[in-house]
Specification:
Layout lengths: L6 H28 L22 H39 L1 H10 L10 E2 L10 E6 L9 E2 L5 H6 L15 E5 L2 E2 L7 H10 L5 E7 L2 E7 L12 E4 L8
Antiparallel strand pairs: 1-7, 2-4, 2-8, 3-7, 4-5, 4-6, 6-7
Length: about 240
């Protein structure tokens, strides 16, 4: 580490690396989407056991392996960021406690940490759908935390604001508006109906991301790309636990 490097500078470097990792994950997710939306667990053989001829099997395998490696790197990077966030908060607390007191007084949820993300160990929860593609500058990418993205972060540490923003490839959606694990019938049309009925309105999502659970607000709306969300969701493989 270079002498004199501040915690904030270290965080900025990690967040830049995080952005690059997410771009690579999204790029490989687009490869899977272009191959008949095969996802991370779709079959590579047909009903007779022969290799499928409607997809590039080599390309799919390479993309899947790359995504797995990148997601592992991303999880480790997020752990490092969280550790430095805690350290930075402690530094601010000691140098400007009044600033921290004012921010803490505005925080709406004392049980949550930065950005509205709950970092406690979660009980096992099953995702109803999984995100396998997020288009740049889309409503999905712009989804925000429903408790204000942490007033402390937005107004006192602005460069942390994007940390928990937006849907990402690999996110498991636990609930999408009124659709949840109790009433979801395995039909993506249920999600589509919510999207159509809630155009230009806030839709609350519960999202499982690694060991975090996020509460997001997504606003389905027309944008420069296709559809109202700018993301692709698929049913989770039966063997996949979220």
């Amino acid at each position: 580490m270079a002498a004199g490097t501040t915690t904030k500078e270290r965080l900025e470097r990690l967040m830049s690396a995080k952005t690059q990792l997410e771009a690579q994950i999204n790029k490989n997710g687009q490869i899977l989407a272009a191959n008949d939306n095969v996802g991370m667990a779709g079959p590579l053989v047909d009903l007779e056991g022969f290799p499928r001829n409607d997809i590039d099997i080599y390309q799919v395998r390479q993309a899947r392996q790359t995504i797995i490696c990148l997601q592992n790197d991303h999880k480790e990077l997020m752990n490092q960021i969280q550790s430095l966030l805690n350290q930075y908060h402690s530094e601010i607390s000691s140098t400007d406690p009044e600033l921290v007191n004012r921010a803490s007084a505005l925080d709406l949820d004392g049980d949550r940490t930065v950005g509205g993300a709950n970092f406690t160990n979660l009980a096992p929860a099953r995702a109803i759908v999984v995100v396998n593609l997020v288009s740049p500058n889309s409503p999905a990418e712009a989804a925000v935390n429903m408790i204000g993205n942490s007033i402390f972060l937005r107004y006192f540490i602005p460069f942390f604001y994007p940390l928990f923003k937006g849907l990402r490839v690999g996110d498991g959606i636990l609930s999408f508006g009124s659709v949840n694990g109790n009433n979801f019938k395995g039909d993506l049309a249920q999600i589509g109906e919510v999207v159509r009925n809630m155009q230009n309105q806030n839709v609350q999502l519960k999202v499982k991301r690694d060991d975090q659970q996020l509460d997001l607000i997504l606003v389905p709306k027309a944008w420069s790309g296709r559809g109202l969300l700018g993301c692709n969701i698929v049913l989770p493989p039966e063997a996949m636990e979220y």
